[in-house]
Design a protein that fits this description.
The complex is a heterodimer of chains A (about 300) and B (about 280). In chain A, about 5% of the residues lie in helices and about 60% in strands. Chain A has one helix at about 5-20, and strands at about 20-25, 30-35, 40-55, 60-65, 70-75, 80-85, 95-100, 105-120, 125-130, 135-140, 140-145, 150-155, 160-165, 170-185, 185-200, 205-215, 220-225, 230, 240-245, 250, 255-260, 270-275, 280-290, 295. In chain A, strands 8-9-11-13-14-12-10 form a seven-stranded parallel barrel. In chain A, strand 5 (about 70-75) and strand 6 (about 80-85) form a beta hairpin. Chain B is mainly beta and about 280 residues long. Chain B is built from two helices and 23 strands. The radius of gyration of chain B is 22 Å and the shape is globular. Chain B starts with a helix and ends with a strand. Classes of the chains: A mainly beta (about 300), B mainly beta (about 280). The interface of A and B includes residues 243 and 271 of A.
């Protein structure tokens, strides 16, 4: 038995028997212990990879290694915390956490430079990188995903999902509930969406949305120069409130109608126009400076 | 958390303000109604008079260089034309006005020089380089007043002057360079083009062949009945397009460009300005 395995089993035993928090330090961890599915996992590292998967067992399995510096670990039946201590940290190398949690455990993970991959937890996720990709699936409840220079790939999210990206691309598929996105320069692609409330903000980032927006929801898109493409089902009804200085609305093969100016807009110079799609429906406020808006039917071939 | 809302809003607001400033900064022709030179102008009323029959399907072709054209509906089939001259400098007698029959149409020409070419298709009235045309040495203006029979058409052209049309009931072409065009008619004009000036058109029905309404530096306002069927192509470079009618889009749309169908579709209204807004209202 190697040293890390020994310590790992010792920690597990301590948790199970004593049911009290365990604090430890080391450069390698491999342990499994009982864990409450309402618990939370907090993982952080400066450089390296974080991988979290889920299983049906009420246990946590932690495998961690680091050649950056010592791993500071804290384990209890409701909380796991792993981080790399700054003191004595190497300038080279990386750390790796590979954690398996019960389904439903909340996950918080952050990396300054590294990858985060979370799948199958069906729980609230808080994932942050300064530089590095984030890949996650099966988020439920409130999830917040943030990166400065990484790509974000999400799949099967429900509840409230919030994504911020500075320059990386964002790809989301199979999303329901509320969706909020801020993407400064990257491209955002959303597929198979059925969203209750939708908010997208970008400076030069583009948006390609495919799916449905709830008729009763609040939906807004703001961008300076990024292009916006909405792909809706052929019978989808919407009311587009478009305010753009230089952008245009390209209806594609959708029947759209420019509604007469009304209210305070009537008779005054305004960039605000209201369009109905299939007679109206989900109200979408779109505000751009020069970004244009294209409408496409889902599945329609791209026009060249 | 990254929050770019403030940055985005600030930049957008700044851009909108700049845009609005640019849009509002259109060059306007400023009238100077009380210039001493205008007050001191001499006038020769009834400098020209002509009348004759002009039936349905026939057309008046009126060519002017410097001065306004005003048209109203005649009570019968007689076309009546009068013209006055106003001047500060020069000899108004050098400016000749004539009317001739050209086939079934009537061609009226104001000629600033003997070399002026004027017929149903051509108008070239040179100025001082040919000795005595409209120039600083001869600022004669010719203002026409026309009574146009119902059903008769008209092609009206001037360079410096407003065109006003009231109560006509046939397709009219109105072209000027410096001056606004104001038309209130039962049937809308087929052409209303100016470069520096607004275009205002009130019509009961659209011209069957469609209408072309253009200006460069000015706004365009069109009023037409609520039950109008038309196709519309309206675009402006620095203004806005606003309609009281729902428009089914058949192309890219924006606050500066509207392309689509009003009602069930019909004659094409081609409406273009560069520095100005477009407004299409219900009568």
């Amino acid at each position: 038995m190697n040293t890390s395995a020994f310590f790992s089993r010792a920690w597990t035993a301590a948790v199970i028997v004593a049911a009290v928090p365990l604090h430890a330090q080391g450069r390698g961890i491999d342990t499994t212990f009982a864990f409450n599915k309402s618990g939370e996992v907090n993982l952080s590292l400066p450089v390296g990879d974080i991988r979290v998967t889920a299983w049906a067992r009420d246990e946590v399995h932690v495998v961690a290694s680091s050649d950056l510096g010592p791993i500071s670990a804290s384990f209890s039946p409701t909380r796991v915390r792993l981080e790399i201590r700054g003191h004595g940290m190497s300038r080279t190398g990386r750390a790796r956490y590979d954690v398996t949690v019960p389904i439903g455990v909340r996950v918080s993970a952050s990396a300054a430079s590294g990858t985060i991959n979370v799948s199958g937890t069906r729980s609230s996720l808080q994932l942050t990188t300064a530089s590095g990709p984030i890949t996650a699936s099966d988020g439920e409840g409130r999830s917040e995903i943030e990166t400065a220079a990484g790509h974000v790939t999400l799949q099967r999210f429900s509840g409230t999902t919030r994504v911020s990206a500075m320059s990386g691309s964002v790809t989301i598929s199979d999303v329901t509930g509320d969706l909020e996105l801020e993407d400064v320069h990257g491209t955002t692609r959303i597929d198979h969406a059925d969203v209750a409330n939708f908010r997208f903000e970008a400076v030069a980032g583009s948006l390609d949305f495919s799916g449905k927006l709830a008729a009763s929801g609040k939906h807004s898109v703001e961008t300076l120069s990024g292009g916006i493409t909405f792909r809706f089902p052929a019978d989808f009804g919407a009311t587009l409130e478009l305010e753009s200085l230089r952008g245009v609305l390209e209806p594609g093969d959708f029947p759209i109608t420019l509604r007469p100016a009304s209210g305070t807009d009537r008779g005054r110079s305004s960039d605000r126009q209201e369009y109905s799609l299939n007679g109206g429906g989900a109200r979408i406020a779109i505000n751009t400076f020069s970004g244009s808006v294209a409408l496409r039917k889902i599945g329609a071939p791209e026009k060249r | 958390m990254f929050s770019y809302r403030i940055v985005t809003r600030s930049l957008a607001i700044a851009a909108l303000v700049l845009g609005a400033t640019a849009a509002g900064a259109q060059v306007r022709i400023i009238r100077r109604p009380d210039r001493a030179s205008d007050r001191d102008k001499q006038t020769q009323a009834n400098a020209f008079q002509w009348s004759g029959e002009l039936g349905a399907g026939q057309k008046l072709i009126l060519r002017n260089l410097n001065g306004s054209i005003s048209v109203e509906r005649a009570s019968g089939n007689t076309l009546e034309i009068t013209a006055s001259k106003q001047w500060n400098k020069g000899d108004p007698a050098l400016v000749k006005i004539d009317a001739t029959r050209a086939g079934k149409d009537v061609v009226v020409c104001a000629r600033w020089t003997a070399e002026t070419k004027c017929d149903a298709t051509t108008y070239n009235s040179s100025n001082e380089e040919h000795g005595g045309g409209w120039s600083r040495s001869n600022d004669t203006e010719v203002s026409f007043v026309v009574k146009l029979p119902a059903g008769a058409g008209a092609s009206l052209n001037t360079t410096n002057g407003q065109i006003d049309i009231v109560g006509t009931a046939s397709p009219i072409e109105a072209r000027t360079t410096n001056g606004e065009i104001v038309i209130e008619s039962s049937e809308g004009p087929s052409v209303a083009h100016t470069t520096n000036g607004d275009v205002s058109i009130h019509m009961v029905k659209l011209p069957a062949g469609g209408g072309s309404y253009h200006t460069t530096n000015g706004s365009i306002t069109i009023a037409m009945p609520e039950a109008t069927d038309a196709n519309v192509e309206a675009r402006t470079t620095l203004g806005r397009v606003q309609l009281d009618f729902p428009v089914k889009a058949n192309g890219a749309m924006s606050s500066r460009r509207v392309s689509g169908v009003i009602g069930r579709g019909g004659p094409l209204l081609d409406i273009v300005t560069t520095l100005g807004s477009i407004r299409i209202e219900k009568k």
